[in-house]
Design goal:
This protein is α/β, with parallel strands linked by helices. It is 18% helix and 12% strand. It has two domains: 48 residues, no CATH class; 77 residues, Ribosomal Protein L15, Chain: K, domain 2. The protein is elongated and about 85 Å long. The N and C termini lie far apart (63 Å).
């Protein structure tokens, strides 16, 4: 094979389709847009419009409520704690709190506190001080010989 013999595969290059060049081309008049008027032009946004009838999204009732001031926790799993300890980023002796987790790079933002969840295996004996913990996570820490203390976030500690 020589450089001057290199070719694209058959069908790899497709020529541009010229639209709006007469009815004989098969793509004249409406230029493959199908209709004339608003839908044939760019920037059309009529999805959900039902021709003046009350649209479905307005016929259905509103439901539910989302607390605007609900606490947002930084979630951490038991498995992630164990990986941080194995990597040497987190010391297992002493109390581990939100500030220690942030300093170790385990959580990026403490938000309204750290919540511990049970996912993964925990072998290290830890003394944790967190804003919340699931029942399974608490049991996993205590099974490893550690303890979990639930603390409320101080109002002055608003560093995110």
């Amino acid at each position: 094979m020589k450089l001057n013999e290199l070719r694209d595969n058959l069908g790899a290059r497709k020529s541009r389709s010229r639209v709006g060049r007469g009815i004989g081309s098969g793509m004249g008049k409406t230029s493959t847009s199908g209709v004339k008027g608003q839908k044939a032009r760019s920037g059309v946004a009529i999805n959900g419009f039902e021709g003046g009838q009350m649209p479905l999204y307005r016929r259905l009732p509103k439901f539910g409520f989302k607390r605007p001031n609900a606490p947002v926790f930084a979630e951490i799993t038991t498995g992630r704690l164990q990986r941080a300890i194995d990597a040497g980023r987190l010391a297992s002796d002493g109390t581990i709190d939100a500030a220690a987790l942030k300093a170790a790079g385990v959580v990026k933002h403490t938000r309204d506190g750290v919540r511990l969840l049970n996912k993964g295996e925990l072998k290290a004996k830890l003394s944790l001080s967190v804003a919340g913990a699931s029942a399974g996570a608490k049991a996993a820490v205590e099974a490893a010989g550690g303890s979990v203390e639930i603390v409320a976030k101080a109002a002055a500690d608003s560093e995110n």
